[in-house]
């Protein structure tokens, strides 16, 4: 029964990761085109519809959009570093717990009953599965944040 659940969790995790990366990639591609088009439209509208100082204001809008892109990059990099700092603590804890269960299983093997050794080994496997889930979620979180930063930068390329 435990092998069935372990295999099911691994398959479900793989499917969820695949769907997540596919959806976020498609959304990133579409959003960047729309953002670039919006930036061009805003610049053209300001340049054309304001009679005397429209061209100057259009260039100012272009400068503001470029500065906001730089600010997004800096904020995004700091955000990713913070996300790595947040995600590393549970990963380290789960790794230590998994190693402790495997080590205790190995140390108890000469003196303990086979059922106890099997229990400790399966507990180690459970923590290994939890570690895989935690790492996958952390990677999805970081990929999502990175793609959001990329979306905002790709939109600026169309200016």
How is the topology of this model organized?
Elements: H1 2-49, H2 54-108, H3 114-157
Helix pairs in contact: 1-2, 1-3, 2-3
Provide the succession of SSEs: HHH
Q: Using DSSP, what is the number of strands?
A: 0
Structural class: mainly alpha
The low-pLDDT segments are: none
Global Rg: 25 Å
Protein architecture, described:
With 159 residues, the protein is mostly helical. It has one domain (2-157). 92% of the residues lie in helices and 0% in strands. The protein has three helices and no strands. α1 packs parallel to α3 and α2 (54-108) runs antiparallel to α3 (114-157). The mean pLDDT is 76.
Would you summarize the structure shown here?
The chain is an all-alpha fold. The chain is 92% helix and 0% strand.
What brief labels describe this structure?
159 residues; mainly alpha; 3 helices; 92% helix; elongated
């Amino acid at each position: 029964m435990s092998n069935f659940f372990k295999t099911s969790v691994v398959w479900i995790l793989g499917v969820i990761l695949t769907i997540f990366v596919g959806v976020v990639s498609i959304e990133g591609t579409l959003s960047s085109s729309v953002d670039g088009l919006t930036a061009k439209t805003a610049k053209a509208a300001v340049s054309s519809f304001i009679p005397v100082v429209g061209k100057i204001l259009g260039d100012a809008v272009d400068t503001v959009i470029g500065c906001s892109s730089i600010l997004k990059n800096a904020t995004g990099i700091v955000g990713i570093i913070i996300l790595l700092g947040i995600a590393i603590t549970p990963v380290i804890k789960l790794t230590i717990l998994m190693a402790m269960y495997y080590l205790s299983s190995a140390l108890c093997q000469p003196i303990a009953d086979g059922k106890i050794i099997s229990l400790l080994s399966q507990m180690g496997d459970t923590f290994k599965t939890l570690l895989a889930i935690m790492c996958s979620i952390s990677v999805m979180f970081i990929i999502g944040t990175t793609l959001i930063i990329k979306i905002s930068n790709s939109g600026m390329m169309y200016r």
